[in-house]
From TrEMBL:
Enzyme class per UniProt: oxidoreductase
Protein name, entry field: hydroxymethylglutaryl-CoA reductase (NADPH)
Keywords, sorted A to Z: NADP, Oxidoreductase
EC number: 1.1.1.34
Pfam families the record matches: HMG-CoA_red
UniProt similarity note: Belongs to the HMG-CoA reductase family.
Listed GO MF terms: hydroxymethylglutaryl-CoA reductase (NADPH) activity
Keyword Oxidoreductase recorded: yes
Transmembrane annotation, as ranges: none
UniProt keyword NAD present: no
Domain of life: Bacteria
Annotated InterPro entries: HMG_CoA_Rdtase (IPR002202), HMG_CoA_Rdtase_cat_sf (IPR023074), HMG_CoA_Rdtase_CS (IPR023076), HMG_CoA_Rdtase_eu_arc (IPR004554), HMG_CoA_Rdtase_NAD(P)-bd_sf (IPR009023), HMG_CoA_Rdtase_sub-bd_dom_sf (IPR009029)
GO BP annotations listed: coenzyme A metabolic process; isoprenoid biosynthetic process
Length: 419
């Protein structure tokens, strides 16, 4: 009898002797009885709604953890950021730094707040930050900015799609006026067009000031979308506000060559003696590791090449009131680690998709605002600096984790700090 592979064995155990056909059908069939626990119909944050939700939950021992007196006293600050509110979740916040950043917008030694439950993470970024600072700091440059929304239109055939495009390209000034009438900060900077058979995608590119801008561009694009549906000489058979071409909250290879959010690059030349002192390895070993791990990433189909941007971004985004789901797109990018002509280490990161802001969204909430203010980066005129700090932080993390693998310290650090 042929040996079953693991996956086939798993399915045999589920569909074979362990679960009967009747049990499987009973477990998976729809159930239509009324649910026992229902939250209040109204999503709004009022004292009455909050009391009714906890009365429904009937778990006072949990209420004290999620709705502590401080949270309850300032609960109204959350009303524009959450629906069906029941309290807050506390996460530990640690500091990494000082991280010296020599940027076009960020020029300082930053203590960077990171919110995480992963032991060894802050320690790793702290080590990388100290290495960069001892080397004179990370040079960081904001390269480009832009946030996209991509309405999509389906026509009967290519001829109608072409006629629609011929009309749409004459409407830029009207589109710009309509979009910018919805916001005091957003600017429509360009429109690109993509045709796929009888489908047309309009790629609206916006500048969003110091806000991350996801909601801003949605509202602005919707104003243009409504105009198109009312005035287009060619009526589409189907049309949608977004056709999923923007890369919103998804890893997308197109972003590597363009921009979504803020595109930033950061680099550092690090003397070999400092690599030895802080990372206990050599530039040559770090370059060799990076070459091998680049091949591994390529074999796995990874978009971009980096060790763990997601760790820095998730911890910083949560601490500083950013949309954490944007880590899915922000964590793509390129890391390079090489030996320079002096035998020292050259390292760079390029992140083309940093979705972040210093106004709007969650940046005004008490704890998140405090984290931004620790760095002096809350409010208008600070988002470009935050992006450069973010890139430098990712560079610090890449150096630290690659050094840990090369020195054989990766497992040891997690064993020591996580246990």
């Amino acid at each position: 009898m042929p040996k079953l592979n693991l996956h086939r064995r798993d399915y045999v155990s589920i569909l074979g002797g362990d679960i009967s056909a009747d049990k499987l059908e009973q477990s998976l069939n729809p159930h239509f009885e009324k649910p026992l626990n229902k939250i209040t119909p109204s999503p709004y944050l009022t004292e009455k709604n909050l009391t009714r939700r906890w009365d429904k939950l009937a778990k006072p021992e949990l209420q004290s953890e999620l709705l502590d007196p401080h949270t309850q006293n300032q609960m109204h600050v959350y009303e524009k950021n959450i629906e069906h509110f029941i309290g807050t979740v506390k996460l530990p916040v640690g500091l990494a730094g000082p991280l010296r950043v020599n940027g076009l917008f960020a020029n300082d030694d930053y203590l960077v707040p990171l919110a995480t439950t992963e032991a060894a993470l802050v320690a790793s970024y702290n080590r990388g930050a100290q290495l960069l600072t001892a080397s004179g700091g990370a040079s960081a440059m904001l390269l480009n900015e832009g946030v996209t929304r991509t309405p999509a239109f389906a026509f009967f055939g290519l001829a109608e799609a072409g006629q629609f495009v011929a009309w749409a390209v004459t409407q830029y000034d009207t589109f710009k006026q309509l979009a910018e009438s919805t916001t005091s900060h957003g600017k429509l900077s360009d429109i690109n067009i993509s045709i796929e058979g009888n489908h047309v995608y309009l790629v609206f590119e916006f500048l969003t000031g110091d806000a991350s801008g996801q909601n801003m561009v949605t509202i602005a694009t919707n104003a243009v979308f409504s105009y198109i549906m009312e005035n287009s000489p060619i009526t589409p058979e189907n049309a949608y506000l977004d056709g999923n071409l923007s890369g919103d909250k998804k890893a997308s290879s197109q972003t590597l060559r363009s921009v979504r959010g803020k595109k930033v690059t950061a680099e550092a030349h690090i003397p070999a003696k400092l690599v030895k002192k802080y990372l206990h390895t050599t530039p040559e070993k770090m370059m060799q590791f990076t070459q091998m791990s680049t091949v591994g990433a390529t074999l796995s189909g990874t978009i971009g090449i980096n060790a763990h941007y997601a760790n820095a971004l998730a911890a910083l985004y949560i601490a500083c009131g950013q949309d954490a789901a944007c880590v899915a797109e922000s964590a793509i990018g390129m890391t390079r680690i090489e030996v320079d002509r002096n035998g020292d280490l050259y390292a760079s990161v390029t992140l083309p998709n940093l979705m972040l802001g210093t106004v709007g969204g969650g940046t005004g909430l008490p704890s998140q605002k405090a984290c931004l203010e620790l760095m002096g980066l809350h409010g208008a005129g600070k988002s470009q600096a935050l992006a450069e700090v973010c890139a430098a932080l990712c560079l610090a993390g890449e150096l630290s984790i690659v050094g840990a693998f090369c020195a054989g310290h990766f497992s040891r650090a997690h064993h020591k700090l996580a246990r």
